[in-house]
Amino acid sequence: MAPESVSSQAMMGGDGQYSYARNSEFQSHGVETAKAIINRVISDKLDLTRVASSSSKVFSIADLGCSVGPNTFNAVQNIIDSVKLKCQSYGHDRLEFQVFFNDLVSNDFNALYKSLPSDRQYYAAGVPGSFHNRLFPKASINFFHCSYGLQWLSSTPKELNDQNSPAYKKGRIYYSRGPNEVVEAYSAESAKGIESFLQARAQELASGGLMALIVPCLPDGISPGECSVLASADLLGDCLMDMAKMGLLSESQVDSFNLPSYFPTPQELKALLKRNASFSIEKFGPLALSAQRQLATNTPTVVSHLRANLEMLVKEHFGNGIIEDLFDRFSKKIDESSVYSQTSVYKPLVENVIILKRNT
User: Fold this and answer.
1) How confident is the model over 63-83, as pLDDT tens digits?
2) Rounded Cα distance, 92 and 13, in Å
3) Listed residue (116, 118, 119) closest to 68, CA to CA
4) CB within 8 A of 16, min separation 6: which ones?
5) Distance between CA 246 and CA 140 in Å, rounded?
6) Rounded to the nearest 5 degrees, what angle is found at the Cα of 113, between the Cα atoms of 109 and 116?
7) Radius of gyration over alpha carbons of the chain, in Å?
8) pTM score > 0.70 for this model?
């Protein structure tokens, strides 16, 4: 029997040195850049008629994959401000706002609750669970937001650990240097997860409601190994193999460890979205990120960012004892490599903002 697949874990909680709250500047820039697009679509496309004419006059928002830290609060507040502005311009009565913060059960919800803005003008609730499944009653949410979440798989393809499968992935933790069979296994698992995500949201989103997504993608026309983010994950895998060769952990542990994420190309992603007839695509395009954001790739920033994303996953599989050694080695590997210095060879991810509207 093949070993079990690796399941996704939440980002690093708390507000310590390597927490997601203190190491999510990349995501913060993306959320900030997407604000104007979301504001414009709310103004032009959001249908408030049913909410404004209902007896409760409650507008419900859900942030999926919220993690911890200020990004989720900033995204939610921007949506609320835009909806309020539209209400005023159309002369609608004042609405009340209910916000649901969703993430995996392993998320640090206590840290999230402690950092809720004291001046918030909405009712807040946490909803633990995978966003690949149903989370809410039918037609109960008016606006979904999900940024930097859809690249995560609910679990890795089982065939990666099956020695009889052409997708068997010995000695590697990711698909970027793997043969086509490995890439195809990851792609198929990602497609299955995104389709499940869309089917669930189609049930939960009210008629005329909107969903805003920010999805990091592999640029069309390049191989996974030519992307700096994916190449840096390979370097982390090299560190684990070095540690196995030194007897600090077993090779079988490394062989059975697979990063549960996949970055579709924009072309792949758009095809998946079009396949679901419940939504119309109101906006699909790359974020125009600032030069400062694109150049923020010094080694400490890269290592801290990746550690905030992966430490919980590494601990779950290998235990706590290897963490400091592993990321010290990873820092040296990044310094020695050209992954972030040779921009003619290694390309960054392209971050796409997508706005979907629930068809009536």
Assistant:
1) 999 999 999 999 999 999 999
2) 40
3) 116
4) 22
5) 54
6) 135
7) 21
8) yes
Give the helix/strand (H/E) hosting 280: strand 279-286
Degrees (nearest 5) of the Cα angle 16, 21, 24? 120
The answer to whether the beta carbons of residues 186 and 332 sit under 8 Å apart is no
- At 305-314, the pLDDT tens digits run 999 999 999 9
Residue 344 pLDDT class (50, 70, 90 cuts): confident
Tell me the pairing of strands 205-217 and 58-64.
unpaired
Two tokens, residue 17: 């040195």
CA gap 273, 354 in Å, rounded: 10
Q: pLDDT by residue (tens digit) across 184-216?
A: 999 999 999 999 999 999 999 999 899 999 999
Is 158 exposed, middle or buried (CB count within 10 Å of its CB: 0-12, 13-18, 19+)? middle
> How many angstroms separate the CA atoms of 162 and 15, rounded?
39
CB 231 within 8 A of CB 345: no
> What is the C-alpha to C-alpha distance for residues 230 and 174, in angstroms, rounded to an integer?
8
Residue with the two structure tokens 């370097």: 235
Q: 7: pLDDT confidence band, cut at 50, 70 and 90?
A: confident
